[in-house]
């Protein structure tokens, strides 16, 4: 679980035997899982695997054929649709910003629906613009078509978070961004999620994104949930061949290294050269070692205190298949 | 917009206003068109009051068309009204294909001479452009935007009033403009059934073989149409600019 500083609004999501059929086609087949509060669960799979349908059954944009969704123990079917959706943030690919409303008005949508007073809405909009590094003087009065793709994405997420929802559903939220901005946007989302402690369920077809963001990853194929596990487990103990293939056998060790931190592989001793941060991933450390042509580099923590050294051999041991 | 077109429009407006308030000033211009010392300027009523009556008829008919066509357009784009779409289309199409003069012929025995048959003819004739534009305006709203609105818990009514209609507005306005401009010209036939309007001037010209009258009536109607179209287009542009769309 991730630490949160403020706005501790969290929620456990329990999905119980959720099924959706359209005529004879089963789109989501008897899926059960629990999303822990304050974590990010990423749903991956090929297109048509049923990920989006699953997500859209959480906020009842699609009515399940059978099964239940509980939020903090409360059955979502017992909550009026619109009330439920006021409590769940929703971000889609392309964002669907209102083209006739300014950035501020877009962000204020749900608070306005909830009937917050003007002062409170204005303060919340200001707070979110600040959180998403959008200068309010510059952006508050702009219309969506005047924004870049990355800015639109941030407004889309800010709008979804406006009424402090306990749960945020994201359907390919980075799909419309070019790769350079995408990585930055993912980092920003992670940072914001850590700060707010919001529970997030995110759908993507991008494996790198899943490993980058997910506390847990749910792999789906042909309406079924194949495996729901931590990224490390998915790599070291794939439940089925499909999972193994999706994870990518060639990239497996590097993905594993990207999950580990330098802190976990620090050895005693000294080394010379440009120090590596203890909070960097092992993959980043390996990349730095290879690039600089060194066997070892010193490790320092955030305030520069030396902690020891890291070596290629030590890192490689972490990227190995567990015995 | 550059200053040129604005100046032209201003000139047209001034010309129109001067002409309908003090038509006798233009008598020398129209005299060459008359024969047998016929009057050069329409003298059987004030041009100003005829123009106002003409505009009144056109705008009341357009208002009624707009209310009915937009309401119908909204209704048949809702899930519950979807099945009425083909029927509504046919009805509105009949309104457009039925010649207004034939509507007059049918309406006069029913409602008598005067304004009423003209209003009915213009109302029916004006439905189609507004209805079709309402349909295309509402259906071209991005499904993403609607999905987001629904996902945030906006009720059906709010989605319609706060998202769909504002986004469809420029296209609906274009339909209304089209309808008004067509009606401005078509309304002249109302004078055949004794409705007050600029058609009187043209018909008087035809009856007395006075080219000057025909030209005066036509000129005033044409200027009204051009200026009204311009004004409504400016409103459309304003609405479209707010949406970040380029004016059509």
From TrEMBL, chain B:
Q: Where are the transmembrane segments?
A: 50-76, 97-114, 120-146, 167-193, 213-235
Per UniProt, the keywords (alphabetical) are:
Membrane, Transmembrane, Transmembrane helix, Transport
In terms of one coarse class, where is the protein primarily found? membrane
| Record localization | Cell membrane
Its topology with respect to the membrane?
A: Multi-pass membrane protein
Query: Could you confirm whether the keyword DNA damage appears in this record?
Result: no
Q: Which CDD domains match?
A: TM_PBP2
Domain ABC transmembrane type-1: residue ranges: 51-232
For this chain, the family text in UniProt reads:
Belongs to the binding-protein-dependent transport system permease family.
Name of this chain's protein? ABC transporter permease
Which species is listed as the source? Microvirga terricola
């Amino acid at each position: 679980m991730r630490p949160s500083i403020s706005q501790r609004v969290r929620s456990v999501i329990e999905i119980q035997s959720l099924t959706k059929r359209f005529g004879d086609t089963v789109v989501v087949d008897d899926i059960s899982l629990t999303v822990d509060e304050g974590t990010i669960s990423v749903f991956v799979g090929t297109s048509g695997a049923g990920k989006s349908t699953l997500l859209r059954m959480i906020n009842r944009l699609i009515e399940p054929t059978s099964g239940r969704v509980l939020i903090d123990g409360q059955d979502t079917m017992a909550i009026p649709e619109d009330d439920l959706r006021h409590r769940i943030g929703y971000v889609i690919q392309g964002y669907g910003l209102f083209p006739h409303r300014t950035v501020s008005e877009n962000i204020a949508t749900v608070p306005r629906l909830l009937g917050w007073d003007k002062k409170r809405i204005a303060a919340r909009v200001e707070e979110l613009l600040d959180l998403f590094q959008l200068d309010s003087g510059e952006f508050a009065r702009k219309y969506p078509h005047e924004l870049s793709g990355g800015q639109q994405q941030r407004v889309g997420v800010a709008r979804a978070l406006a009424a402090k929802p306990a749960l945020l559903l994201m359907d390919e939220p980075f799909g419309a961004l070019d790769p350079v901005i995408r990585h930055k946007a993912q980092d920003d989302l992670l940072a914001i999620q850590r700060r707010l402690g919001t529970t997030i369920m995110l759908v993507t077809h991008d494996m790198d994104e899943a490993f980058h963001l997910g506390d847990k990853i749910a792999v789906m194929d042909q309406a079924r949930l194949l495996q729901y596990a931590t990224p490390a487990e998915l790599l070291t103990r794939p439940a089925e061949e499909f999972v193994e293939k999706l994870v990518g056998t060639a990239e497996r060790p590097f993905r594993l290294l990207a999950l580990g931190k330098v802190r976990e592989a620090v050895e005693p001793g000294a080394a010379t050269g440009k120090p590596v941060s203890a909070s960097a991933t092992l993959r980043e450390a390996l990349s730095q070692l290879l690039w600089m042509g060194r066997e070892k580099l010193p490790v320092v923590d955030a305030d520069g205190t030396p902690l020891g050294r890291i070596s290629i051999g030590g890192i490689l041991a972490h990227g190995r298949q567990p015995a | 917009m550059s200053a040129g077109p604005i100046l032209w429009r201003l000139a047209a407006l001034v010309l129109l206003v001067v002409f309908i308030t003090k038509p006798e000033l233009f008598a020398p211009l129209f005299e060459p068109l008359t024969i047998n010392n016929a009057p050069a300027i329409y003298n059987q009523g004030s041009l100003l009051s005829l123009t106002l009556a003409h505009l009144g008829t056109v705008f009341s008919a357009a208002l009624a068309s707009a209310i009915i066509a937009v309401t119908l357009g909204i209704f048949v784009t809702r899930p519950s009204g979807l099945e009425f779409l083909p029927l509504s289309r046919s009805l509105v199409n009949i309104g457009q294909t039925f010649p207004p003069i034939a509507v007059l012929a049918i309406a006069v025995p029913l409602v008598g001479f005067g304004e009423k048959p003209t209003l009915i003819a213009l109302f029916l004739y004006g439905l189609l452009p507004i209805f079709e534009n309402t349909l295309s305006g509402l259906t071209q709203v991005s499904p993403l935007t609607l999905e987001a609105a629904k996902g945030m818990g906006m009720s059906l009514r709010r989605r319609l009033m706060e998202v769909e209609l504002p986004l469809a507005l420029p296209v609906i306005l274009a339909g209304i403009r089209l309808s008004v401009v067509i009606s401005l010209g078509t309304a002249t036939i109302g004078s055949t059934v004794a409705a007050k309007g600029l058609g009187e001037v043209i018909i008087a010209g035809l009856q007395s073989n006075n080219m000057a009258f025909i030209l005066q009536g036509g000129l005033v109607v044409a200027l009204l149409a051009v200026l009204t179209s311009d004004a409504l287009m400016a409103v459309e542009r304003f609405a479209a600019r707010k949406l970040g769309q380029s004016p059509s």
